[in-house]
Amino acid sequence: MTIEQIKEKTLYGDYTLLGQVMGINAPAAKMRFFRGDEIAKKALLKIIANREALIKEFQNRTNKAI
User: Where are the domains of the chain?
Assistant: First the structure.
């Protein structure tokens, strides 16, 4: 996935979480990602995937309850 494709999937708070994961502040984490840092890219992809999976899991539970 390219940086632009990942950027399109990011939501508010993703860079904050990336910074926490990497042990740095959010702006520094965001800049590392945009500079092509592989660790930042892998971590952000995992953040996005986990967020999407969590949303899907709970939407499925809510739909089954109705």
Answer: 3-65
